[in-house]
Amino acid sequence: MILMEQRTLGRTGRDVSVVGLGTWQLGGDWGEVREADAFDVLDAAVESGVTFFDTADVYGDGRSEQLIGRYLKDRPDADVFVATKMGRRADQVPENYVLDNFRTWNDRSRANLGVDTLDLVQLHCPPTSVYSSDAVYDALDTLVAEKRTKAYAVSVETCAEALAAIARPGVASVQIILNPFRLKPLDEVLPAAAAAGVGIIARVPLASGLLSGKYTEDTVFAPEDHRTYNRHGEAFDQGETFSGVDFATGVAAAAEFAELVPEGATSAQTALRWIIQQPGVTSVIPGARSVAQARANAAAAVLAPLPLSTLDAVRELYDRRIRAEIHARW
User: Fold this and answer.
1) Which of 34, 150, 217, 271 is deepest in the core (most CB within 10 A)?
2) How crowded is residue 31: how many other Cβ atoms within 10 Å of its Cβ?
3) Distance CA 145, CA 167 (A)
4) Nearest 10 degrees: CA dihedral of 15, 112, 137, 146?
5) What is the pTM of this model?
6) CB under 8 Å, gap of 24 or more: what pairs does 224-227 form?
7) Separation CA 182–CA 189 (nearest Å)
8) Residue 328 above 90 pLDDT?
9) pLDDT(30) > 70
10) 57: which residues sit within 8 A by CB, 6+ positions away?
11) pLDDT at 140 exceeding the cut of 90
12) What does pLDDT average to over the chain?
């Protein structure tokens, strides 16, 4: 196995690899993934130094969790920290975020993963009011006391939600969209998390593949791919698909981003390297549908730091292309 830089995941106290593996794609929402291919991806990630998997009970209605559980049972030598998420299988109303439901959801995830105690459970982008509910955090504390999970955290859509969670003493980490096309968390969220000792997990790091530089305006995705059916937020929050960026705008911006890529790296690796360099980031969790993608993503951890000139160019590109488009839209 290759050694990779490890960082402490906030209040869990556990070190995890700076590049993890997001496993939404193993559930099938990015197109069909065969079981054998899924195991190959997990194996390639571990062999490349990844010690952090992120999943959710809703990914393939539990398929992603089940595949991870079976893989890790067969690989007892793989020292992998698994974070899962709960809540999105129920109607998205605050009344559903109660202890009885948490126990039921937790039981299902533990069974899927084949463990007695989860490493980390995260609220999966619940209604905004949930982040400010004392009763919700009391219920999460109960899950820890009952040894159903070692720690709890949140996944968020907005910076305001992240800041509300960071203020809570039991929240171990915050998972938030962060990439060169989504810079807003840099202003307040990352500094607040660092000050509080809360970990930051950067999700949607490649803007649903835009930052891979492989797409054109004519690219067509499979019908079951969320990049087809949720492009304008038809199924869930638009920020989950292309980071909320208009596809045509994103394709044009990605072409410019490709011009910033250092020799010997790819656009995707450069985007991951940019995220790793942001102060306060613990781990970035790109997905992978192939062994080659898993290995290439992990290799971003050993790239040389991007120079200040590149960081400034990313900010200028974001301001000119992305922020301008978002402001015009709203």
Assistant:
1) 271
2) 15
3) 21
4) -90
5) 0.94
6) 224/28, 224/29, 224/31, 224/32, 225/29, 225/30, 225/31, 226/29, 226/30, 227/30
7) 13
8) no
9) no
10) 65, 84, 85, 86, 88, 89, 105, 108, 109, 112, 124
11) yes
12) 94
* Three-state SS at 69: helix
Question: What pLDDT shows up at residue 246?
Answer: 85
d(CA 132, CA 153): 13
Identify the CA nearest to 220 among candidates 228, 212, 230: 228
User: What is the three-class DSSP state of 173?
Assistant: strand
**DSSP 8-state symbol, 322:** I
Q: Tokens representing 67?
A: 């595949």
* Radius of gyration in angstroms for the set of CA atoms belonging to the chain, rounded to a whole number: 19
Handedness of CA 71, 74, 80, 82 (dihedral sign): positive
User: Sorting pLDDT into bands at 50, 70 and 90, what band is 293?
Assistant: very high
Q: Which is it for the CA torsion 244, 240, 202, 46, positive or negative?
A: negative
Distance of CA 46 to the CA centre of its chain: 17
Per-residue confidence (pLDDT) for residue 235, from 0 to 100: 76
Q: Give tens-digit pLDDT for 226-237.
A: 788 878 777 777
270 or 236, greater pLDDT: 270
Record the tokens describing residue 192, joined without a space.
């607040």
